[in-house]
Each structure stands twice: as C-alpha cells, then as structure tokens.
C-alpha cells in the first residue's frame, strides 16, 4: 500500500536514496526553503535534519558523505552525527528532537541556472568538484580539495568551453547552433562526468593527471531541445537523459581512452570523434525525472504524472498521479496528454526509486524485534517509487511487477 511522508511545508525539490552497510531503508529529502531531512522509511519519520539558507537544488552521496547544493550559491558537505548511528533499533525512537547533520565543508558554487554539481572521490581525503563556472553558466570549472583541510580548495580548470571542439564534429547543414547553451545537469558514472546542455547535447569528460580534459563521448540525441535530467540506467548499464520531447537518450562512453603522447596542461582532447544519437521512444514527453532499475523505466513529467514502462519504453505498466487529497493510480496507459487550467493535480518537484534488496541479508539480522524484521522483509521485497510534490508531501508506492 502507498504511504505519504509529511514534514516538509513547501515543495520537495530533491530526493536521495542513502546506501550504506546498514539495512535500514533511508531517504534524504531537501525542500524549497532549504530544509534537509533524513528519514527512516520503516517508521516513516525523520531522524536527522539541517536548515540551509535557500532551496536545495541537488543531493548526492559520495562514500559516507552527503553533498547538498543550495540556491544560496553554496555546496555543503555533511556527515551523520557521531552520537547517533544508522542502526535499526535507535531510529525507532519516539523523540521529537531531530539530531542535526554535521557540516564539515563548504564551497561557493554558481547556482544561477539551477544546474546541479558533481563531486568525485579521487583517493583518500581528496575529492574533485565539477560545476558551472562562477560567472558563466555555459562553461565548466573543476576544483580539487582535501575534505580534512578547510583551506585546501584549488581550481584545476577554469571556464572550460566545449562548443568550439564539438561544433567541428557535427554536420553544419544538419545542426545549426552557435553555442552549447547553459549547463543543465552533471552526472558521475564510471569515473566520467556526463554533462547535459541546453542545446540537447550530452558530453562525457574526464580530467587526466596532466589536467588535460578528455572528451570521450558526444551525443546530439535531444538537439535542439534542452536536457532536463540525467540518470544511471542500472540494468541498461548506461546513462539515460530526458528532454521536452517523447524520447530518452541512451549514453555510454567507450571503456578505453586513446593513448596520448604529447599533451599540454589545459588541452582538450577528443577521444571519440563520433557523434551519437541513441534514443528510446516513449508515449509521453516533458520528462523532468528518470529512474531505471529492476527492469523498468520510471519517469515523472511536467504534467504531474509518474509513469512506469518496461525497458523498451513501449509497454506502459502503470501511471501514478496525485490529486489534491488523494493518490489515485490510473491504469489506462494513455492517460491525459496535458493538464487543464483547472486541474487539481499536484505538480511533481522530485522523484527517485529504490530497488529490491537481498532478503537473505534481512533474514539473517540479529538483535532486532520480529516486528522490525517483518517490516524490513516487506520493504526489501519491493521496488519503490518516491515522488516529491509541490505541496511538501512525499508519496511512497510499490511499483514492482
């Protein structure tokens, strides 16, 4: 049965499934006012919190670090309180006092266009940050920092511009564009950073030890419409992208880079000069959020619908929508193409899914009550879709088939 998490008072703008060695299913949510909550999905209550100074744009897990990008032009990095662990028993406490997350690092980041940022673990305490340039949202900055040293932040590359290189790879008679446009999304996948642009291009890049930038993949799948979301397709083993059209892009950089002999610091190197355009057609469009796992594709649209497909995108399995005061499921795979002006449908502001987990691990857990173990088994045996809405609610529903 679906249930609803209620604590946020404004739009839930980001959701993150927290993965750890603990079995407890844990959700992290951020809202329009800057509140971050950490939820126990078994008792459906938050147990950690933090209040930032502006809308939460994105949440990312990097090892045991929580990375939050906020609309106040600040990227914040948190750990969980040392005094409270993510063990199963103590998160069923009835205390109304939520422990506060530990803020351990802050970095100023340009958030003028609502693009997210991506933090990449390099080794030990060293991390790399990929984000929009501080002044020009069409170019990219790369930073490195030591999480243990507050003053360690240094910029490795400034205002990386890819248009000149990519424009030479396309047929000008087919694609006419004078810029890639603003950066819309960053996504880390298999040690590469995938970047979605306003022009519809998706580019995969990496930084070598000599600070030369390798472009290992270029796609024009959504040209000329903007990239709205990037997400990892766990079964498909590639990156998925969405736009305003009725197609999802499929992206996979080649595993091996070309061997380069004479590169200078600051070079941009094209490792694969082919421009790809692999797509899956969907019977819906204006897809703002994508998830792919457990042999299904889940999308949320500007129309207020969350739609579940098989991995071909051809067969619609379920359509979920939230009307004010209820959460109906429309089994008609065609639904309504758009929202009328007087629609009572609640707009979607974020969406994630949680895949099934190994129930054998749950069965072997000791030192918990049988009631908690039954809840864990029931939760672990399902694929879940979690949708954040403009009214502050988070609807949680099983979508396994």
UniProtKB/TrEMBL annotation:
Gene3D superfamilies linked to this entry: YVTN repeat-like/Quinoprotein amine dehydrogenase
Cited InterPro entries: WD40/YVTN_repeat-like_dom_sf, WD40_repeat_dom_sf, WD40_rpt
Pfam families: WD40
Domain of life where this protein originates: Eukaryota
Name under which the protein is recorded: Uncharacterized protein YPR085C
